Every structure is written in structure tokens, then in C-alpha cells.
UniProtKB/TrEMBL annotation:
This is 2-methylisocitrate lyase-like PEP mutase family enzyme. InterPro entries: ICL/PEPM, Pyrv/PenolPyrv_kinase-like_dom, Pyrv_kinase-like_dom_sf. Gene3D superfamilies: Phosphoenolpyruvate-binding domains. PANTHER family: CARBOXYVINYL-CARBOXYPHOSPHONATE PHOSPHORYLMUTASE, CHLOROPLASTIC, PHOSPHOENOLPYRUVATE CARBOXYLASE. It comes from Caballeronia udeis.
Length: 290
């Protein structure tokens, strides 16, 4: 499926009534596995991608070049539309334009841009500060003008709820929609009542961020849809599950128990070979064997 086809598929899905659930992908194994499971959309998580690629916190350390490298690799490996975290746009307005063009050229179905000050910090963590709403409005206007494909989704995120309250977050959301955002993402609502208020306040597709252990209540996709949300992302679920599984099996290896007790919970080696494309390598070797 071409990039344009993936973008159109996502845009059409967002126009339907069913909620889109998007798992977080953070490395090439997670991308390849999620791509086999018929999701309508994947979400390139900043936290997980920066952690797996650089081994550092998602706190403004990763550069545009770092993240474009990951966007390019993830989107090339996936037939599923991918919304990719673009942080603050990696600088001023010219940087935002460059970032949008770069992500679109790399095959992303959409980009998430947020209104945090630089250096940004991962959502649901403390210490997040936001720029003036008027400055973010300009970023969104630049982003919409910079894209080549009108189906490329501009996801506008505000982190104002945590530091300035929900009223300010809603005010910013309205301004960002007027500026041209296709999808609105109000980060870190802290109750069902706040989720309900957000859902009733806007007519554009709304994105909700479900983080295990985070600030937002853990509701089912059906409950979130009933409240007015169109996309539910699960950015941390994959890498949290992987880290727990690694900790368990590494503990067993360190304790000299071997891995026999854990093998029933492991992805099989044969399936991993298939997932990563080894059959094509073996066929190639057979074709050109001396």
C-alpha cells in the first residue's frame, strides 16, 4: 500500500463512527508484529522510540534527524498507517515546516505536534510547560501549509491541562482547530468528567492517550467512543510489556535456572524468523546456490 493510500485509509476511518485503537510501536520488531494484526493505525511513541533507539529519556534530547530516521524505517516496514510523534517540531516555524515535509516524505500518515516549551517532556510526566497559544497556532498554520498531501493528518496536542487547567486546554484546543488541525489531542485529562467535557466540546476527531499508570482513567475503547473520542492510542503498552518480560527471563538466566520455565510465554524462534523475513533470504540462497 502506498503512503497516499495509507493516509486516505486513515482519513476515511476517522470519518466513520468506530473508534480507532492504535498500539504504540517503538522498534522494528514491534512495527512488524503490529503490522500483521490488522490495526487501522499504529502510533510511533516518542517515549518508546527514544528509549529503544538512544536509551535516554523522552525529554527533548532526540533530534529531528534521530526521529526522522525512525519514521522512515517504521513507515517503510508497515502497510498500516502510522501517526508519528513530532514533538514540538524541533525548533521554530521553519523547523516545523521542514519536519512536516520530512515526516510526510518518509511515509507517515500523520504527525503529532505539541505546544510544550523546548526542551519538551513526555506526557503524563511532571514539569511540562507550554508556549503561548498564539505561537502554537502559527506552528499549526505552517504545518498545514507545508504538507503536500491534504490527507496527511496534523494532530495538534496541548499539554496545558496539567499546568494551566482544563479550561485553558479547551480554549487552546478551539484555537488549534481553527488554525487547521485535523485531529485534536488534549493531553492528560484526569477524570471521566473531564473526558466527557472534552468530548462534548469539539466536532473534529479527538485523540485520547491511554498510559498504564498515567493520569488519564483507563476506560475501554467503547466507553471512550461513547464520550466522543475517535482515536485511542496506547503508546506505552508494548514497551512496558516487553520490559517486564525481559526482566523476568533475564532474572531466570542470572539465577542459573535457564529459560525452560519461560519458553511457553515466548514468541517462537520459528515465528520470529518468519516475522523478520528470513524465508525470503532462504529462497534467495536456494535460487543462487552453486
Amino acid at each position: 500500500m502506498t503512503s497516499n493510500m495509507k493516509r486516505r485509509a486513515l482519513k476515511d476511518k476517522l470519518s466513520a463512527n468506530d473508534i480507532v485503537v492504535a498500539p504504540g510501536v517503538f522498534d522494528m520488531i514491534s512495527v512488524r508484529l503490529a503490522d500483521t494484526m490488522n490495526f487501522d493505525c499504529l502510533y510511533m511513541t516518542g517515549f518508546g522510540t527514544v528509549a529503544s533507539y538512544l536509551g535516554v529519556p523522552d525529554a527533548g534530547i532526540a533530534t529531528y534527524t534521530d526521529m526522522l530516521n525512525r519514521v522512515t524505517a517504521f513507515c517503510a516496514a508497515s502497510n498500516t498507517p502510522v501517526i508519528c510523534d513530532g514533538d514540538t517540531g524541533y525548533g521554530g516555524l521553519l523547523n516545523v515546516a521542514t519536519t512536516v515535509r520530512g515526516y510526510e516524505h518518509a511515509g507517515a500518515a500523520g504527525i503529532q505536534l505539541e505546544d510544550q516549551e523546548f526542551p519538551k517532556k513526555c506526557g503524563h510526566t511532571p514539569g511540562r510547560r507550554v508556549i503561548a497559544a498564539e505561537d502554537m497556532v502559527k506552528k499549526i498554520q505552517v504545518a498545514t501549509e507545508a504538507r503536500q498531501d491534504p490527507d496527511f493528518q496534523i494532530v495538534a496536542r496541548t499539554d496545558a491541562r496539567t499546568s494551566l487547567g482544563l479550561d485553558e486546554a479547551l480554549r487552546r484546543g478551539e484555537a488549534y482547530v481553527k488554525a487547521g488541525a485535523d485531529v485534536l489531542f488534549i493531553e492528560s485529562p484526569e477524570s471521566v468528567e473531564e473526558l466527557e467535557r472534552i468530548g462534548k466540546s469539539f466536532d473534529v476527531p479527538l485523540l485520547v492517550n491511554i498510559v498504564e499508570g498515567g493520569r488519564t482513567p483507563q476506560l475501554t475503547p467503547a466507553e471512550l467512543q461513547a464520550l466522543g473520542f475517535s482515536i485511542a492510542i496506547y503508546p506505552a503498552s508494548g514497551f512496558l510489556a516487553v520490559a517486564k518480560a525481559l526482566e523476568r527471563v533475564y532474572d531466570e538466566i542470572k539465577a542459573l535456572k535457564g529459560t525452560i520455565p519461560s519458553q511457553a510465554d515466548m514468541y517462537s524462534f520459528a515465528k520470529m524468523c518468519d516475522l523478520m523475513g528470513f524465508p525470503a533470504v532462504w529462497d534467495f540462497d536456494k535460487k543462487y546456490a552453486e
